[in-house]
Amino acid sequence: MLKRLLYLYVLTLSTYAVNSQTSNKKVAQAHRVSNHIAVDGKLNEEEWNNALPLKDFIMFYPDNGKEENPDKKTEVKILYDDDAIYVGATMYDNPENILKEIKLRDQFGTSDHFGVFFNGFNDNQLEYRFFISAAGVQLDAIATSAGEDYTWDAIWDCKVKITENSWVAEFKIPYAALRFSENEKQIWGLNMYREIKKDNTSYCWNFIDSNLNNEVVQAGILEGIENIKPPTRLFFIPYTSYYHNNNDNGSDNKFKIGMDIKYGINDSFTLDAILVPDFGQTTFDNVNLVLGPFEQQFNENRPFFTEGTDLFNKGNLFYSRRIGGAPILEPILSADEEITENPNTTNLLNAVKISGRTSKGLGIGFLNAITEDTYAEISNTTTNQTRKELIEPFTNFNIFVLDQRFRKNSSVSFINTSVIRNGSPRDANVSGLIFDLNTRANTYKLSGDSKFSYINDFGTIKRGTNSSLFFGDTKGKYQYGFGSGYISKNYDHNDLGIIFRNNYYSFNTNGSYRTLKKTSHFNNIKLQSDINTEFENSTNKLQLGTISFTGDFFSLKNDALKLNATLSPFETFDFYFPGIDGRYNYNPKYFDLTSVISSNRNRRYSFDLTGNFVKHDQPGRKSYTISLGQEYRFSDKFFVRYGVRGIKDRNDIGLVDYNNNNIIYARRDINTLEHQITSKYSINNVMNFNLKVRYYWANAINNKFLTLREDGYFDDNTTYNLNKNINQNIWNFDLSYTWWFAPGSLVSVLYRNNASLAERNFNTNFSNNLKNVLSNNPNNTISISFRYYIDYNQAKNIF
After folding, report:
1. Is 324 found in the same domain as 213?
2. In terms of residue numbers, what domain contains 360?
3. Is residue 645 part of a domain?
4. What does the alpha-carbon distance between residue 531 and residue 542 come to, in Å, rounded to a whole number?
5. How far apart are CA 776 and CA 771, in angstroms?
6. Backbone dihedral region of 434: left (phi > 0), alpha (psi from -120 to 50 degrees) or beta?
7. CATH code for the domain in which residue 137 is found
8. Residue ranges of the Carbohydrate-binding domain (predicted)?
């Protein structure tokens, strides 16, 4: 009976209401041309005069639904031929008010910009978005109901011109950059977007109602495109790179040559492959001192694993840094052996992914990557002989995804991830079923998942489950939601994903309020309250219990204030910190208060100031954090940003050692100081010098040792006397030059200097720590990389 009621409830939700926006969709007509269109930002060809203008844009922010200012109106015309679609946009404004900071590709910065959004299947599922800034900087993204993905890059052309009363953008978007059917008459989804930075206002062509949380279902219609054929989408990106590395141990030179391939299997599916990967110029990770039970999670900086990966992120089972990440085995040493080389990454041999979506809304994704054997080098201190020991065998990583979308706003997905290691020291397989159901009017949501993990860990089989369910109101000023979840003890998807906590059941609820139009004092206000609880499965002890309140306020001048207060009114228990099955430690009640003040980034000088204070219900245990970021824009070409962050944790309690069957904790003081400088100078919109500098210093000083009792509380330990203090310094310096000399083609030169130092005995003088890390065998690297983008269609025409 319960299953029947749930089925009827979901069926009612899925058929509730009719989208009132459907009948209000604007319709645009594209005009076919046969003559050559020069992309120069002038719109002086006769064909532009023959096309019908698209106008009457509507404000998206802050007064959602308000008509555009006649003095700042927008007019757009659309042309097409057998090879590409052309967009000519005129944005009227006083040229003195047009902001045009030059940034890197896919960065808006302080610049007016215009975007055009195409959906070649008109299915309200996925848009290809192309933006140009008033400075001529290109941005592109794939947009779904989950948001925008700016890691996707296409090859297209656009030029801008500033006139006496406007700025003009002229686009040429080849069909190879889009996806559409082979129908004789095309009907595409279309929307356009303009942002005026000086006024902090944005406009769209087809009205996007802020009441709804889904923008891609609110596009208009583009008609008039006929008798075009999807081109052969075949691209080659050969590259060559040179690296010179130098440190106190000597120097070495590396030369790499390889190729990336992109191939459109058909009008919907694309194959991406990397042969002989080269990620040597990706930005450095912001490594921190880790004192807790969980690893630090890093951002993905490798384009192959960020571009167009929305399908693979279903169910949050994919953490791409596992591919090429740390080895899983530790070397086994005899008494007279020491490790002389222990790699912290594995070498990626190659990777391939296939992804796309059929005309019936079925998304299919396949990703496969292979890493090679990785060895540690071990030296015998008595005989001086060396040997190698395998710490990560040849490994295959695989993801397979099916994502069926229906009714233009709902989906059911299946995903499977597997990791197979040669010799099977540890293999893993995880499957998940995910659903996201929305009413036709996008008023209510019912979502959830059910995941299963199978781990063969050195012959020990572990099976686990992870399930969750959420229901929420997703339309209007007032919204709410509530959900629950269950994760079993043996559930684990860490071989190709990342998960920190398991073995609990949870309940959560939230409610929010937001303004949809500006008030007399604010452009936007959002208030939210959340209650989250987690209970450990076997003991039913509370391991998380928080009540939080958040307020976001944006002034009429677009300065921002964010306040967050979190209260944990009960003692909780940590089942992860001790690191031994069945053991746990208690955590006291606490109160956490955070405030963030951010000035309008459109000003030459801007800043953001963050303060945080945490007070635990324990004598002397508290934490202070303050961070300040300041940015000054000297011109549209040159800016400098400096950020500093300081943290003081007093009487923190954490694990330090295992001794004689005892689990040793310490009451400790933790100090953290971080400095970052970023800067950019642009010669023009395709040539840039970039600087990124980071110095991170953190130390933990143990004041008193404690022994963990079986009940999770502590006794003083007066016999343990080992030095478990830690002082960590990390230095990174990157200076680079990039030149996009042709569409998709890049020359980059990078100088990198980095060093790190971890020590038990230290002093707390700032200058001494900085000097010590800079002199601790710094690594210097100079690299040059050349990549050239070859479009099969253009190459075919040339030859």
Report:
1. no
2. 295-499
3. no
4. 14
5. 9
6. beta
7. 2.60.40.1190
8. 39-193
